[in-house]
Amino acid sequence: MRSTAPIDSILADAITQTTVAGLTAAAADTNGRIYEDAFGCRSLGGTARMTTDTVFRIASMTKAITGAAAMQMVEQGKLALDQPAGEILPFLANPQVLLGFDGKGNPILRAARGTVTLRNLLTHTAGFVYDTWNEDMNRFAAETDLPAARTGKLAALAAPLGYDPGERWEYGINIDMAGRMVEVASGLDLETYFRRFIFDPLGMPDTGFELRPEWEDRLAVVHSRGEGGTLTPIKASRPPENPEFYPGGGGLFSTAGDYLTFLQALMHGGQFNGARILRPETVALMGENHIGALNVQPLVSNKPAMSNDVELFPGMDKKWGLSFLINTKDVPGRRSAGSLAWAGINNTYYWLDPKKKIAGVLMTQVLPFADQGVLGLLDRFEAAVYQSVG
After folding, report:
1. Does residue 67 fall inside a structural domain?
2. Which of 91, 115, 235, 251 has its CA 20 to 30 A from that of 165?
3. Last residue of a domain, one of 130, 154, 184
């Protein structure tokens, strides 16, 4: 029988050492779940214990689910990877590129060279960027009152590009655009679409954009990491009421168990719990490199309260699939080359190893992103999962 005691010890130590106030973690292989447990408290100094059904803000872990929805639309012929995105969203037909600012602080814009496609959007090569890691966009948003995508305001989608489509990889609001394409092509908002075609079929009852009353007592509190590593509970923003669109790049609430169910569906070629959400060939396509010779670039933060500088697997070339980070080399004792992964800004993480058929989820609620303590914990958790499988 497999021993999960080493995993328990690693995760419990993170609480003892106050790496995090609390966490939940889950993992599975091709035979089913091999681990699921919770440690610590939902809030530092609080009495409510973390449980496996604790609800987390998973932020950009939303992106993979939006990618799956977009690929469902591709399977149905309602979207195509290389069609001009402007055919679905007219405002993408003639995008502009932000070049900088003139002497008076006015933005300098020019027409983009090239066409934005769904493939560009799913791979972060369309040109859209995030103000957290792009200083020009941070300035543009401040000076023009451009709302963030998380507000659910359609005006957020009027952001200019940071560069021409296909020129480079840069993390940004691209998958918010892809999610909006799903809404238009399907005639459903993403909350309804996800629930009807992904969450309900797979059995993911605790995942959604809207903060349900029954989740209030199970919701993990977000903490801020201060000087010296101290943690302070903070009041996180609540999702907008009656949004004009649901941001496919972030915004979902979920549990470790629910998200692992989604990963298990991908692990099994798009089918799990008696439901098929994607064809096997579609899942395989999503896991391929779709940025060619381009590489995933480090993210240099200009909002230190939100994110540290980010470079996962430093020194390794990294690619991007249809909504996933792909490591190009084996990580000794851990994931294989070609594994799929990403994260959420509150330090939630997942990986899916299609070769070894192992997936894992680690949920915490800490800012800023790329917290070194949590990243180290993720490494140790992942290694212990692989060791338990043998």
Report:
1. no
2. 251
3. 184
How many CA atoms lie less than 13 Å away from 368 in the CB half-sphere? 15
- β-strands 318-320, 325-327: how paired? antiparallel
Residue 191 lies in a domain: no
User: Rounded CA gap, 324 and 314, in Å?
Assistant: 17
Residues of the chain with pLDDT under 50: 1
Q: What is the pTM of this model?
A: 0.98
CB count in 10 Å sphere of residue 387: 14
Range of the domain at 363: 5-62+205-389
pLDDT score recorded for residue 390: 83
CA distances from 104 to 84, 141, 160 (A): 35, 16, 19
Number of domains present in the structure of the chain:
2
Backbone angles phi, psi at 115, to 5 degrees: -120, 135
Tens digits of residue pLDDT in 278-311:
999 999 999 999 999 999 999 999 999 999 999 9
What pLDDT is attached to residue 1? 46
User: CA gyration radius for the chain?
Assistant: 20
With residue 253 as reference, give the H or E element that holds it: strand 252-254
Question: What pLDDT was estimated at residue 133?
Answer: 98
Measured from the Cβ of residue 324, the count of other Cβ atoms closer than 10 Å reads: 24
pLDDT of 27 reads 98
Both 96 and 220 in one domain: the answer is no
Catalytic residues: 60, 63, 171
The CATH number that applies at residue 297 is 3.40.710.10
Collapsing DSSP states into helix, strand and coil, what is residue 361? strand
pLDDT digits (tens, 9 = 90+) for 116-157: 999 999 999 999 999 999 999 999 999 999 999 999 999 999
Residues 101 and 54 in one domain: no
Please report the pLDDT score of residue 350 as a whole number. 99
If asked whether residues 276 and 224 sit together in one domain, one would say yes
Same domain, 172 and 234: no
User: In this structure, are 43 and 84 located in the same domain?
Assistant: no
